[in-house]
Model the fold of this input.
Amino acid sequence: MWQLLMPLLALVAPGGGSFSPNRELLECASQILYMDQYAYQLPTNYSRNIPPGKNTTVYIGINVNRVSGVDENREEITLDVFLQVSWEEIRLNVPPGRPFIDLPWEFRQLIWTPDLYIWQLQTMRILSVLQEMASLRLYANRTVSVSIGATITIKCEMDFVLYPLDVQNCAIDFSSYKYTTEDVRFEWREVAPWFGIAGEQRHEFRLPKYVVTFVTDKSNHIRNFGEGEHSAARLQIKLSRELRGYLLESYLPSSLFVIISWGSFCVIPEIVPGRMVLLVTTLLSLVTMFDTVSTNSPDALELKCIEVWLISCTLFVFLALLEYFVVLFGIRYDKSWSRRRQDLRRAASAAQLAPPLHMNHSQRLSTPVTGTPQGGVFSPQLSVEDEGLKQQFSHQTIQRDSPILEAIPQSGSANGVWARICTSAEKGVMFCGAQHGALDRYALIVFPLCFILFTVIYWTTYLSEAHRAMHSTRYG
Done:
């Protein structure tokens, strides 16, 4: 305080002479030197520790000049602002004939000023070029106005579960730390004659990733802490993310990868290298994209919106690869059935020429063999027993579209159920390995329909959540 008062006392002393601070301090401390080199006299009974009156209204005005940046990892917003704080000081008067007087910034310590507290403030630095960008002005209507140009960093609690559809709402409260609502009330006043700001204020700023909007909340807000209720003026900051970049960088490529994977259903299953390269390359590309997005995106307690999309796309491609494995297994199983069918046919042909199995040797010799000569070659004919054996083998001939299992003893109901299950499973495997590609044809219809259904459900759910978050308020 002495360093602030010594230049003042030297200027207001008669003749510029020296004096004893202890003797003349009370006389000169009530004088404030304003810009026109005139000494302004403070009232003798003025106390800087007492508010101007009960229920004093402090008006807050803020003009955001620039949004310097948004740090998602630290959950901070940096702003360049011009802050105006004004209140009515009925104990002070402007000299007659003057609309206002500009007081030196250092002498704000001699008058009462509200103990302004910004709840979410991290750091604040007053801008300066040749001197600090701050002013203290007293108007003829007994209004004191304090104006500051500063760079402030605000803490904003963010939730990135809906990333990149997230909308961050931050409530910044300007209030008093010491005075309760009975002594000081805070209100917004965006336009006032003593602000001296020309032109319209900007309420929206477009950044590469965000659209930042500022809205002053005119309703009364109360902060409860300490010994009572404290009035607060609230500034709402809304950060809505620019979605176009994410659509082009993540959503569109991943959707194209899924669509390309459907092309594998049109490739002949026997061409294993071509189909495998297409599916595996697509799958690896999606895994790489997911890893990149997870690394570059902010952290969240749950799976983020874009991670759910990429994981789902990866699963669609993986299911297409799994479908191809089923087709390959079906083809391999179908080939084994073909070899078995040929063996049974050869056995049936041999049985047609063999004598009946239930006859003994003497009966075989006595059984007449009839036949008719055909072109000089005798063609034997089988008896009734041989015809039955022939029909037995013909029923065991395996057809491609209706496979038959080996005989399973039907000793009980459990064995019968197990036989039906095995028969159904074998028919399914034979269907997957059919040469006409029946499974691929069905997959070419089912996969696109499922992906379209997933897309509709995904965007409907998350857009509704984003809309709900846009209209909610989160206190930092």
